[in-house]
Structures are given as structure tokens and as C-alpha cells.
């Protein structure tokens, strides 16, 4: 990817696209600074902040502890579809 200087764009069968970055260094030094400068909106921002926290845990080597690994698992569980429940759907679970 020319703009960020890292990653590749993959086309999926359902006409969606994926931007894939395999280098942890590029995630820390290019992707996170980009999204800090140009923040996402809505629920995507919540996902990004959880992702950024997970990157921080890994960068500090805290993922090598049970506590750090569990924190990453909790962050992952709260991302994507889990964030998109409408308030009225929460009350149905009670």
C-alpha cells in the first residue's frame, strides 16, 4: 500500500476489501499513528481503541502473562458484533 507504506489490500468474494498488515512494527509505527490522527467514527472507534489497547499490551510484553492474555481475550470478545447490539436488544437478555 503506497499511502501508508505497508500492508496489502485483498478483495474478497463478497466484493468487500481487507487491508492486511503483518508487521507488528508497521502496526505500531504507521497504522496506530494514522488512526490517532484521523479517528474512526461510531462503533468502529470502540473497536480501534480496544485494538490499540491490545497492541499496547503486546508491546509491553504483558501478553506473556496470564493476566495480559486474559485482558486481550476480553478486549477481543467486546469487538465487532458484540459492540453492535442495540440498547433494546440488551433488555431482551434479562
Give a quick rundown of the structure:
The protein is mainly alpha-helical and 94 residues long. It contains 4 helices and 2 strands; from the N terminus they run ββαααα. It has a domain at 23-86: Endonuclease I-creI, CATH 3.10.28.
- The tally of helices reads 4
> What is the CATH architecture term of the domain at 23-86?
Roll
Task: Give the % helix.
Answer: 40-55%
Unreliable sequence segments: 86-94
Report the span from N to C terminus.
46 Å
Q: Report the biggest beta sheet as strand number plus sense, adding barrel if it closes.
A: 2 strands, antiparallel
CATH fold-level topology of the domain at 23-86: Endonuclease I-creI
| Beta strands, count | 2
| Net shape | globular
Q: CATH H-level name of the domain at 23-86... which superfamily?
A: Homing endonucleases
SSE string, helix = H, strand = E? EEHHHH
What would you report as the Rg, rounded to the nearest angstrom? 16 Å
CATH class of the domain at 23-86: Alpha Beta
On the 0 to 100 scale, the average pLDDT is 86
In quaternary terms, these chains amount to single chain
SS-derived structural category = mainly alpha
- Strand order in the sheet with the most strands: 1-2
Fold blueprint:
Layout: E1 8-11, E2 17-20, H1 24-37, H2 43-59, H3 66-77, H4 87-92
Antiparallel strand pairs: 1-2
Helix pairs in contact: 1-2, 2-3
How would you describe the overall organization of this protein?
- There is one protein chain.
- The protein has 94 residues and is mostly helical.
- The protein has a domain at 23-86: Endonuclease I-creI.
- It has four helices and two strands, in the order E-E-H-H-H-H.
- It has a two-stranded antiparallel sheet.
- Strand 1 (8-11) and strand 2 form a beta hairpin.
- Helix 1 (24-37) packs antiparallel against helix 2 and helix 2 (43-59) packs antiparallel against helix 3.
- Mean pLDDT is 86; it is low at 86-94.
Amino acid at each position: 500500500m503506497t499511502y501508508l507504506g505497508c500492508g496489502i489490500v485483498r478483495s474478497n468474494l463478497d466484493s468487500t476489501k481487507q487491508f492486511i498488515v503483518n508487521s507488528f512494527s508497521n502496526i505500531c509505527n504507521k497504522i496506530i499513528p494514522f488512526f490517532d490522527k484521523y479517528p474512526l467514527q461510531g462503533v468502529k472507534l470502540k473497536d480501534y481503541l480496544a485494538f490499540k489497547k491490545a497492541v499496547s499490551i503486546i508491546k509491553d510484553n504483558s501478553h506473556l502473562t496470564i493476566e495480559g492474555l486474559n485482558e486481550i481475550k476480553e478486549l477481543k470478545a467486546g469487538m465487532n458484533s458484540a459492540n453492535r447490539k442495540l440498547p433494546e436488544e440488551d433488555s431482551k437478555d434479562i
